[in-house]
Amino acid sequence: MRRRLFRPIFNTGQIGAALANYLFYVLQGRRAVVLYTDDAYGRTLSAGFRRTAERLGVEATYHGFGAGPERAKALADAAAEPDHPAVVLGMVAGDAIPSILALRRAGVTTPFLEPDSIAGDNFADLFARSRRRQHGPDFSPTTSMRLRRSCSTAPTTKR
């Protein structure tokens, strides 16, 4: 029997490349704004996106941020992008929730492309808890799922 390698998961750079391919081939997008946390996860995801986007001819601007004022500036810059391109999030759920909320409040209605760490049901639950803190106990998980669909374009699969 021949030995074969099967890779059931992707590394972070490959996730960034997959998001660029999805933007280009599925959404027919040609521009993006990439928001990423200035850590190993965010930098690697944005680098993978950049390599593939450049190869495909997708124009993108990149905004890395740490804590506090850097995040606010990156979000303001992303919201001010002309013609509102798709938004790629290179961050984990804890950073994504306040970022999505801030961008939606700023009027950004374009698609959000997110890594798998954000696309699961757990993210919707975190989103609901965050929104419930803002809007009170009447905010329901069903509302959260509608928000999730409006904030995400990447297909998800049940595991």
Summarize the entry for a quick read:
The protein has 159 residues and is an alpha/beta fold.
Fold and architecture overview:
- This protein has 159 residues and is of the alpha/beta class.
- It contains seven helices and four strands, in the order H-E-H-E-H-E-H-E-H-H-H.
- Helix 1 runs parallel beside helix 2 and helix 6 packs across helix 7 (141-151).
- The protein starts with 11 loop residues before the first helix and ends in an 8-residue tail after the last helix.
- The model is unreliable at 135-159 (pLDDT under 50).
Please summarize the sheet with the most strands: 4 strands, parallel
Distance between the termini: 30 Å
**Strand order within the widest beta sheet:** 2-1-3-4
Beta-strand portion reads 5-15%
Rounded radius of gyration (Å): 16 Å
Residue share in helices?
Answer: 40-55%
Mean pLDDT: 80
Tell me the number of helical segments per DSSP (H or I, 4 or more residues long): 7
State the fourth-level CATH superfamily. Answer: Response regulator
Name of the level-1 CATH class: Alpha Beta
Total domains:
1
Name given to the CATH architecture:
3-Layer(aba) Sandwich
Structural class based on helices, strands and sheet pairing: alpha/beta
- Record field, number of beta strands: 4
Shape: globular
> What oligomeric state best describes the polypeptide chains here?
single chain
**H-E string:** HEHEHEHEHHH
CATH third-level topology: Rossmann fold
| Model regions low in confidence, pLDDT < 50 over at least 5 residues | 135-159
